[in-house]
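Might you be able to review the protein record set out just below?
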Amino acid sequence: MEVKVSWNGPSGMDFRAQTGSGHLVTMDGAPEAGGHNLAPRPMEMVLLGTGGCTAFDVVLILQRSREDVRGCDVTLKAERAETEPKVFTRIHFHFTVTGRNLKTATVERAIKLSHEKYCSASIMLAKTAEITHSFEIVEG
């Protein structure tokens, strides 16, 4: 896997990132850090990627378990250290899984498998952060 991140120039703290799969993403800094607040911060991108990684796992595991999953949202709330390096110290994942007749035990198992075995991002972040999760099932 390879990505390239390029600074857009001296007028701010915005960066253009190109993924190995050819996608472009813009990141920006907070105004107090010289940014213009026009795009997500790099650490927000870390959370976004982690949320995508675990949601992907949960949906795939539920589909393979022959569950009628129709939607999956995950909200991540994180706390960071107060001093440098400001690593994540706590991250809570809240899943809202929508489907028909979803089994609670199967949803719980899918989330657990993602966090303990499959989601490289959350497993990596667990090296510095306390990871917790909760979920709700919505019929639909």
